[in-house]
Recover the amino acids of this structure.
């Protein structure tokens, strides 16, 4: 359990991760924030207005679970409320990392979730990475947009903002950020080559069956997407099974992303068992172009 460490060790851990995200180029200037829950009502976090690459352990701030300062000369990051909301709403989570890794943040700005079944390691470790609805920084809007995804996810793209990962300890939260950023980079490079090849449903299910033997989730597990369908491992605690349609809207329509086939924020069609077909705008344009070309060629 993370509480078994001393406060001094927790402070050193935060500074270690601060230096890593800074050296990776995931933050600039005063960007980003990191925290560790060190007790039932105590959280250590990075201060506002300070570069993460040059922080000292004595500059960290201790707050209670309502954000009131307990110790520290500086003020806590205004976005610590995101971290606190996660700690209150997801069991087993004791640390959070928020940064702006360029590739993952590019997907967040483009309004595209990282949810396809592409890389076995990502399927096992993260599953899908949702795009949360845009929220004004330093307000409750961001915590509220993340909260509905908490049961099934540990990594999040914050629309037009950045990336956020959580874990049992700060190193797990950091490594999840590292995995997400590499996944985003590989996905973007594959797109520039002209194709993102998803793994077949049969092989994804094999991966998820193995995953269920390796990882015991305290919450759920959202699986990943193949075309318009979300594939989840049977008996994973989230109620998702193979061929489950979650229908996350991957376009940026101003409403953020939600697991709804029609992008409306509800999932009535999936619940009622109606047939649902989802298609990307680019795929529709390509399909129509081919149909028109065939008609023209036949004349």
């Amino acid at each position: 359990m993370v509480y078994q460490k001393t406060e001094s060790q927790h402070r050193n851990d935060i500074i270690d991760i601060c230096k890593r995200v800074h050296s990776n180029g995931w933050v600039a200037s005063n960007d980003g924030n990191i925290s560790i829950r060190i007790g039932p009502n105590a959280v250590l976090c990075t201060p506002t207005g300070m570069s993460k690459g040059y922080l000292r352990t004595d500059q960290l701030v201790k707050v209670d679970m309502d954000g009131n300062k307990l110790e520290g000369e500086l003020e806590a990051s205004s976005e610590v409320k995101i971290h606190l909301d996660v700690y209150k709403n997801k069991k087993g989570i004791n640390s959070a990392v928020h940064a702006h890794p360029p590739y993952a943040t590019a997907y967040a700005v483009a309004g595209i979730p990282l949810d396809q079944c592409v890389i076995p390691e990502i399927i096992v470790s993260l599953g899908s990475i949702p795009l949360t609805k845009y929220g004004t920084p330093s307000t409750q809007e961001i915590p509220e947009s993340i909260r509905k995804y908490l049961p099934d996810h540990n990594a999040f793209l914050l629309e037009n903002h950045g990336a956020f990962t959580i874990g049992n300890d700060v190193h797990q939260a950091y490594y999840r950020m590292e995995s997400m950023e590499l996944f985003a980079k590989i996905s973007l490079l594959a797109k520039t080559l002209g194709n993102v090849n998803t793994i077949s449903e049969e092989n994804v299910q094999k991966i998820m069956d193995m995953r269920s033997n390796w990882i015991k989730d305290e919450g759920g597990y959202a699986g990943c997407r193949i075309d318009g369908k979300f594939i989840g491992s049977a008996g994973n605690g989230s109620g998702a099974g193979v061929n489950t349609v979650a229908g996350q809207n991957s376009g940026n329509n101003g409403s953020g992303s939600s697991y709804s086939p029609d992008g409306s924020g509800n999932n009535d069609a999936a619940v009622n068992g109606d047939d649902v077909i989802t298609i990307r705008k680019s795929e529709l344009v390509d399909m129509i172009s081919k149909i028109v070309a065939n008609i023209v060629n036949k004349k």
